[in-house]
Fold:
Amino acid sequence: MLCKEKGRYSNERMALIALGEICKRQNLQVYPVRVYQCNVCKLWHLTSKAEYKTAQEKEFEKTSRQLVDEITRLENAVSTEKQNVEKLRSHIHMLQGHKAKREERSIKHSKLTVNNKEIEQLKIELQKANIKADMIKNEYYRLLKSIRKIVMV
Ligand SMILES: [Zn+2]
Structure:
């Protein structure tokens, strides 16, 4: 049955009220037994079909939920790593700016060396952050692949 041929309710409460009203009638051949939110129109309908899920369907739902949680966690981790990379980049940029200014004023060599060391260290940190972000990305794609496998079954 198409959505427009069924009763449509904007929320669960309205659908439940309608369910109660319809069940009071005495001349029906089929009585609705529950309400559900429609995947197509996103509104709520009544149905006479009892809810039935196989163990496989339940397992699938559980696995999907876990994968979605895992993806959310990884997406957050990726965005944190990206922020870290950006912070390090702008820090390096700033230090390089300082260094350039110091060179212009041709101040002591020793200070420049310290500055260079600091920049080198930051570059190493940036590399590490990039590697970590790549690792998280790979994990994320691996998960997406396993989700696709499950969905294709
Ligand atoms: Zn619908």
